[in-house]
Every structure is written in structure tokens, then in C-alpha cells.
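Retro notes - structure team

What went well: the batch runner handled both jobs without manual restarts.
What didn't: labels got mixed up in the shared folder, which is why I'm recording both outputs here explicitly, each with its sequence directly above its C-alpha cells.

Job 1
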Amino acid sequence: MRYIALALILLTVSGLFAVCDTLYLCSDWNLISVSVVISGTLDSLFEGIIIYDMIGGSFIPMTDTLIPGKGYVAYPVTDTVLVFCGPPLDELPVTEIKSGWNLIGSNWEGWIYADLITVPPGIIDTTEPPRKYECGGDYFSEDTVYHGQGALVFAVDSGNVTTAIEENSPSAKPEAIEIFASPNPFNGAVRIEAPSAAKIEIYDVNGRRIDDIARRVQPDEAISPNQGDCRALRARNDGGAVFVWRPGESLGSGVYLVRATEGKETISKRIIYLK
């Protein structure tokens, strides 16, 4: 199995909630990230370990300050265990990518293609799943990139990539929009609660839009989305709406992403379908 193992340790550091990434590095290539908020230089944090970045298929030696969440290639002389503790990293840092294979790190919650935002849009080939590396083995594909890991994605053009970042300006609405889904995981259908004015979309792990619940409906009016059935149950007094989504027969078990957009604000929630 993979030699990058991840451990979650809960502790309190100076009154702050903190978590720990435990990285098991073998004496081979390791695709990693540090998904907690810490500071220090790569030389001091990875003493005696060669560190590279990969941009556009090229390896670039790295010796500067650690960027939490950024992907790195680590090559130790011997098997090594490193533990990094700090507040969990919420979002990916803005990462430069170029045409070809690029190394992307991870925030604490991890990501799938639907979580990524690129500038310009559409420059990552989502038909190529993220690729990880098994020490002493070969590359393998896996849809979800977890904290502490790094993965290669293929870009068709140059630009930047990150995950969704909430607006934090004085003009932003004080109340953030929210999505609720239950049961989660679900089998036949999932109940989704979201703002009635929001555009609701459902994506698969490759970033492909499965359903677009864009127009508002009357209670119990059927919607005809692309890959499933959705029915509006009722409007809530607080301005929200309740839906029930049933995946189409062609959809398999796995992780899906419900995304709500209202004005300039976007929020996402993972749901797990067990067929």
C-alpha cells in the first residue's frame, strides 16, 4: 500500500484547535503536502531530504519557505517519519500550473476535481484522474486527494489553481449561505436544504456537472435534471428551500458534490451515494 499514511491527532496548542499530519516517507519519490498551518524553511523542516516542485512536467529544486498545502516531491536517503502539527489548512494556496503534469498539494479536508477553481477556467484535463505515486512502485489514479498528500494533474494551458475561497470584504453579506444534506451517506435519495434563491448544481468527483437545479419550482413540482430526479418539497420560512435528489440509474456509488451559488458567494458540500 501507499507509504504516505495520515494520522489525525486532536490537541490544544496555546488555546487553538490543532491537528497533526504524520508523513511516512520511503527512500524513493514521495508526493506530499503539509496540510496544517506552520512556518519554517524547507531545509529546516525537511532536514537532509531533497525537495522538488513539479510544474509543467519539470522538476524544480526547492529550498525556500514552506507553503502550507503546496505539493512537494520529497526524496529522503532513508525511510523517514515526519510529524507536523498546527491549525488545519482550510483552502489550497494559489498554485501556478503550466501545460503538462503539475504537482498539487492538499488542504486538510482534501479535494476532488469539482473543488478546484482555475484561472483561466477549464485548463485542467479532468478526464485524467489525479495521479499519486506508490513508493517503489508506479503511479496510480485516485479521485480524492487527502491531507498530507500530493497528486499530479494534467494542464492543457498555463494559469493558477486553488479551491473555493469565501469572500471576506466589508460588502459581503454577514450571513453565509449554507447547505444541509441528510441522510449522508444515502442510498436511494438525499434531502437537500439550501437558500431558495441559490442555483444548485451537483458534480461528480471528476468535476463533471451531473444535475443543474437552476429554476425555482412550486412544492412537489418535478424537475427533470440530467442524471437523476429531483423534487421540490417546500419553501422554508427563513428563505430556504428543501429538495429531494435521487441519482439516475446510470450513476454509480461514490462521492458527489452539491454546490450552491447565490450572487458572488458559492458553497459546496460532499454527499456520499451508496448504491
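Job 2
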Amino acid sequence: MVIIEAMALEKGVIATNFGGPLEIIDHNVDGFLIPAQKPDILADQIIMVINDTGLQIRIGKNAREKVTSKFNVLDYQGAEVRKDGNSATMHHKVFIIDEKIVITGSFNPSKNADTKNDENILVIENTELASKFLEEFDLVWAEAKQS
């Protein structure tokens, strides 16, 4: 999810050519794929991107275009979707069910999170806690922009 979130913000992503990133990034088109455990190649890629503003813009635009066309499943299902109106970065996953169950943690709903990554997930049944998460959701939703 983090890769898709970054791409939605027109940020070129540099990721390893293993697992989930292979399903998301087209190398040199909308991001960059590098071999795992090769810090010299990672450093060279970072330097190249930093020094080429045109490349940053091209990759960023391509990344955003891919995300809005390929990964916008909620829109296709008729769900109301809003773009984050907060200028700060937030990386938080939470599900609130029936105003009493909170599901949160590091787990991304992806195949790698399910089968390879070291993730955690908490399921808490507590109406008071759920109401606090709903309050925060309402604040974020109010700041968000309609897509």
C-alpha cells in the first residue's frame, strides 16, 4: 500500500525487484526496481533521480496515472473516495466495524503481508475506543477533498 500511496502523490518509488513491487512498478516507467541487498545500486539510483528533475517529473506523472487508472478499485465500486487534505504524511490503517470493533496494525491487505512480511494486526472490541477512532476519521474525512 505504501508504494501505491507514494505513486498517487506523484513520487517515484525505488523498490526491490522482489514480491509486491514487481506487481506494481514498471521499471524506468513509473518507478525503479533494483536488486535486493545491493546498496551500491540503490545509492546510484537515488543519486541519478536526485540529479534529474525531468526524470522525477516524468516518473511521478506516470506513477500517478497508473494509480488512478489501475488501482482505483473503490471508485469503480461506487464508494465515495476522497483525497487526503492533510499536507503531512500519515501511514495508518484502521477499520471500524459497527461502531464497536477496531482493527488496526501494520498489516497491509496484500499477498506479501499475508504470506511473507512480519506484520501485526489487532482486533479490539470496545465501543469507547471505536468512538475515538471514529472521531479522528471524521476529522480526516472533513479535511479530505472530493475526488
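One thing worth noting from job 2: The chain has a mean pLDDT of 86.
We'll revisit the folder naming next retro.
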